């Protein structure tokens, strides 16, 4: 892939971009493909828990990463690589290659401020990649559409295109084939992040194992999105949405972390409309009727368990330059 350099290049001293974490209101998973990935039918919702990346040019061609001290208490800095394997660094490298910029002179330093828990099932690393892509695109005056940026980002992870696009969307394929949804009514949620993460491949692997052993039913067909859930989301019917939340990864995640089931019970006892593990977990999410109820629910869960709970809403915008 290559893209011609623009004839005039604006000079930025730095550029900052934000990208959202996500939850899956519904995540249906099929049987693994030959490449090990699973076909999914996902209903993504971008939520008001944002990652921020500031990109500053480096003339020596290096792509470097640091983690800001402003990052949230949910984030264990030791769990995040700050070498070339960091998803933000990989996004910057992919964009530089796509644009055909000189690797000797077009380096960048990326400072990441994380709010989204690491390996929490909320696509935090994917949001870092999306924010880094937008920040570097601004720095290097890339002149690319959001759609093109999402395509450049897709090989970095199944959730990365959604972090670029944001809002609410159906995700097919491995989650990267997106159809935006016109969800104009806010969904109010409470998120309970865990301090330790779960490995996404391990959770998918345990789902396969449970299905093969007969502990869970084998899916009969490729996964599909429930049109009633899409209807409930687009019409803002929280009570109906509560009945239709689904996540095939919940049983394997709760098998690996049994406390998740207890946390789900606590949220329901404290008045949540519904509760579910987010993505591959271990973050747990609860649905509330309104913003006010979400704040009250978060406070009650914190009081009862001593575990931090955060009221958020969605859909929010995808990655954008500030
Ligand atoms: C659980 C979800 O967050 C739901 O949105 C995603 O499916 C995972 O997205 P992600 O973390 O961006 O995933 P990637 O970084 O692309 O993949 C990590 C690993 O998860 C597994 N994986 C991921 C996506 C998918 N559709 N099937 C899979 O089996 C694969 O073992 C893969 O090696
Ligand atoms: N910028 C980054 N932020 C967080 N993790 C990163 C980053 N770059 C690489 N990683 C690695 O990716 C792994 C998954 O992190 P991430 O926070 O994206 O998980 P997740 O939210 O469970 O992802 P998903 O919901 O997309 O499966 C981490 O364990 C970490 O080793």
UniProtKB/TrEMBL annotation:
Active site feature: 22, 159
EC numbers on record: 2.7.1.148
Listed SUPFAM superfamilies: GHMP Kinase, C-terminal domain (SSF55060), Ribosomal protein S5 domain 2-like (SSF54211)
Pfam families: GHMP_kinases_C, GHMP_kinases_N
Binding residues for ATP: 117-127
Keywords from the UniProt entry: ATP-binding, Isoprene biosynthesis, Kinase, Nucleotide-binding, Transferase
Annotated metabolic or biological route of this protein: Isoprenoid biosynthesis; isopentenyl diphosphate biosynthesis via DXP pathway; isopentenyl diphosphate from 1-deoxy-D-xylulose 5-phosphate: step 3/6
UniProt KW Transmembrane helix keyword: no
Domain GHMP kinase N-terminal: 86-167
Recorded superkingdom: Bacteria
Single annotated GO MF: 4-(cytidine 5'-diphospho)-2-C-methyl-D-erythritol kinase activity
GO biological process: isopentenyl diphosphate biosynthetic process, methylerythritol 4-phosphate pathway; terpenoid biosynthetic process
Gene3D superfamilies: 3.30.230.10, GHMP kinase, C-terminal domain
Residue ranges constituting the GHMP kinase C-terminal domain according to the UniProt record: 230-301
Enzyme class: transferase
UniProt-listed InterPro entries: GHMP_kinase_C_dom, GHMP_kinase_C_sf, GHMP_kinase_N_dom, IspE, Ribosomal_Su5_D2-typ_SF, Ribsml_uS5_D2-typ_fold_subgr
Catalysed reactions, semicolon-separated: 4-CDP-2-C-methyl-D-erythritol + ATP = 4-CDP-2-C-methyl-D-erythritol 2-phosphate + ADP + H(+)
Protein family per UniProt: Belongs to the GHMP kinase family. IspE subfamily.
PANTHER family named among the record's database cross-references: 4-DIPHOSPHOCYTIDYL-2-C-METHYL-D-ERYTHRITOL KINASE, CHLOROPLASTIC (PTHR43527:SF2)
Known role: Catalyzes the phosphorylation of the position 2 hydroxy group of 4-diphosphocytidyl-2C-methyl-D-erythritol.
Identification of the protein by name: 4-diphosphocytidyl-2-C-methyl-D-erythritol kinase
């Amino acid at each position: 892939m290559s893209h011609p350099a623009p004839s005039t290049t604006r000079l930025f001293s730095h550029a900052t971009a934000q990208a959202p974490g996500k939850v899956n209101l519904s995540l249906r998973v099929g049987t693994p493909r030959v490449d090990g990935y699973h076909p999914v039918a996902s209903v993504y919702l971008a939520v008001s828990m944002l990652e921020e990346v500031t990109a500053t040019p480096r003339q020596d061609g290096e792509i470097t990463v640091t983690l800001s001290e402003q990052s949230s208490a949910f984030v264990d800095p030791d769990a995040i690589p700050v070498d070339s394997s960091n998803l933000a660094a990989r996004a910057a490298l992919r964009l530089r290659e796509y644009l055909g910029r000189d690797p000797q002179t077009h380096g960048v330093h990326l400072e990441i401020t994380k709010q989204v828990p690491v390996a929490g099932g909320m696509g935090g690393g994917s949001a870092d990649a999306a924010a880094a892509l937008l920040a570097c695109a601004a720095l290097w005056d890339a002149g690319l559409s959001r759609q093109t940026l999402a395509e450049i980002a897709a090989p970095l992870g199944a959730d990365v295109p959604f972090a670029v696009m944001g809002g609410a969307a159906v995700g097919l394929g491995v989650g990267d084939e997106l159809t935006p949804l016109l969800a104009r009514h806010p969904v109010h949620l409470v998120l309970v992040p865990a301090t330790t993460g779960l490995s996404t491949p391990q959770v998918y692997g345990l789902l396969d194992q449970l299905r093969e052993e007969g502990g869970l039913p084998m899916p009969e067909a490729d996964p599909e999105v429930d049109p009633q859930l899409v209807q409930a989301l687009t019409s803002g019917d929280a009570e109906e949405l509560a009945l239709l939340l689904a996540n095939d990864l919940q049983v394997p995640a709760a098998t690996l972390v049994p406390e998740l089931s207890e946390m789900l019970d606590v949220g329901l006892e404290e008045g949540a409309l519904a509760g579910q593990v987010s993505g591959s977990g271990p973050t747990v999410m609860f649905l509330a009727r309104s913003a006010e109820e979400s704040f009250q629910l978060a406070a009650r869960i914190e009081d009862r368990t001593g575990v931090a709970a955060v009221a958020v809403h969605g859909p929010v915008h995808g990655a954008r330059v500030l």
